[in-house]
Amino acid sequence: MSKSIFYRLPPSYVKWISSLANVDKRLLDALRLMRSKEWVYGHSSSHSHLLMSYAKDRGYPSSWGNPHVLPACGTGADMVWKALGVPGRGGVGGLPCELLHSRVTTRWGLDNSCLANVGVRFSLAFIEAMALYLPVHFLPLLFTRPSSIFQRHRSIPALLAAIRSATFLSTFLSSYFFAACLTRTLVLAKLFPWIPHDVWDGPYGSILVGSLTCGWSILIENTRRRGEMALYVLPRAVKAFLPAKWTAGNHAGARLAERIVFVLSLASLLTLAVHEPESLRGLSRWTLAFVMKGSSAEFWKKRKEQIETCPQTPISPSSNSISTQSVDRL
């Protein structure tokens, strides 16, 4: 997702994704400053201390985060990297990847490896996502059918669904960083060394490529989950492209547009509930069917028919004769 969409999501969701991504806030602030041209490679800035302090806290020389010292292009960058002591960055400029990788691979001494960064991020995100999705998929079984948790035909599909969702989320996070490294270090920046690194690190460089790449991870999820996520993300994506003055405050035009969209959406749902109820699914289908048709809705009719046609428990002849004899004795 792009930065503008990401930072317009609910704060709790942003905080959760940020904790999984494990990116320092100073690095995110620097990316915003690059977008507004307040942090430019090869020039001094009033915000130069931002990444200089970050580099120092990471155990690297503060010069690694100084925009005035860092090379803006790949041409002639090798001499600068040799003077700064940055390894494995020949032919490209910009911020060293050791800083962009944050602290994820520090304990293994693999800060300069883009592939190791992607692999470790995928593994850590997968473990955290499994801790989230296992309760999501198993708690409904425990509450509704506790005994079914030990049945293979129910527990195995739930486990596979949790693994599938965790794989989606970990791929979503790791593929973003992989695409960013391919853009700014491994491939594109080396193929076009004359292009300033302000472009590669800007909103239309590695950020855009990473956003386009990580979005394809939705194909890992099943069709139903894709539809649910699309319904969740689409309104926020539309909102991100609207002017900020429209969405913030009491803008009359925005309120009118919101009400029109709500009326049209509700009218569409009600129309489908009456004429094509099979096109709806889940809670919306049954709730709207009951609202529009009451107990005469097709779903409730079938439920009633199942109860009425349920066969009664047969009475054996022996038990019947025993009961007759007991009556005669009385």
Task: Explain the overall architecture.
The chain is mainly alpha-helical and 330 residues long. It is 65% helix and 0% strand. The chain has 17 helices and no strands. It has helices at residues 3-6, 11-21, 25-35, 49-57, 77-84, 97-100, 114-144, 152-186, 188-191, 197-200, 206-214, 223-241, 244-247, 252-275, 282-293, 298-308, 317-329. The termini are far apart. The model is unreliable at 1-7 and 313-330 (pLDDT under 50).
> Kindly state the mean pLDDT as a whole number?
81
Count of individual helical segments: 17
Q: Give the overall shape.
A: globular
Q: Indicate the radius of gyration in whole angstroms.
A: 30 Å
Q: What structural class is derived from the secondary structure elements? A: mainly alpha
The biggest sheet amounts to: none
Strand content: under 5%
Question: What fraction, in percent, of the residue positions are helical?
Answer: 55-70%
Roughly how many Å apart are the termini?
A: 82 Å
Low-confidence stretches: 1-7, 313-330
- How many strand elements? 0
- State the order of secondary-structure elements, H for helix, E for strand: HHHHHHHHHHHHHHHHH
Highlighted features:
single chain, 330 residues, mainly alpha, 17 helices, disordered C terminus
Walk me through the topology.
Elements lengths: L2 H4 L4 H11 L3 H11 L13 H9 L19 H8 L12 H4 L13 H31 L7 H35 L1 H4 L5 H4 L5 H9 L8 H19 L2 H4 L4 H24 L6 H12 L4 H11 L8 H13 L1
Short description:
The protein has 330 residues and is mostly helical.
